[in-house]
Amino acid sequence: MTVRSILDEKGRNVITLGVSTSVTDALKLLEEKAIGVILITNSEGRLEGILSERDIVRSLARGGTGILSDSVASHMTRNVVTCSQSDAVIGVMEVMSKGRFRHLPVTDNSKLVGLISIGDVVKRRLQVVEKEAEDIRSYISAI
Question: pTM, whole model, 2 decimals?
């Protein structure tokens, strides 16, 4: 089971903003789309960072509401961990658990091709476990 199988099922649509977008505009988009993270790209569409609800909360705690007019570039996580479509789901699960993050951009030759969440990964893993359990039940009942 690979990341590609998750993207094939859920789609490859990714919400992005430019680095100069204000934190206020990012918050409005998070609320409007009911999402927890926005990928930040440069003018060529290359991934520059990721801005999560958690990033915004931490910035508000440090700087107060004055940060709302800042650009997202000032508050995003810059060193973004990514995965590829060919990565195994179980490996991605481990990366996300160790890194303690809930979203992982998917890239192909440095081009952004999707985004997966821990929910997507857990859902896929449960499907595999349920299928294996059903196969075992079928095998045992056939004996």
Answer: 0.84
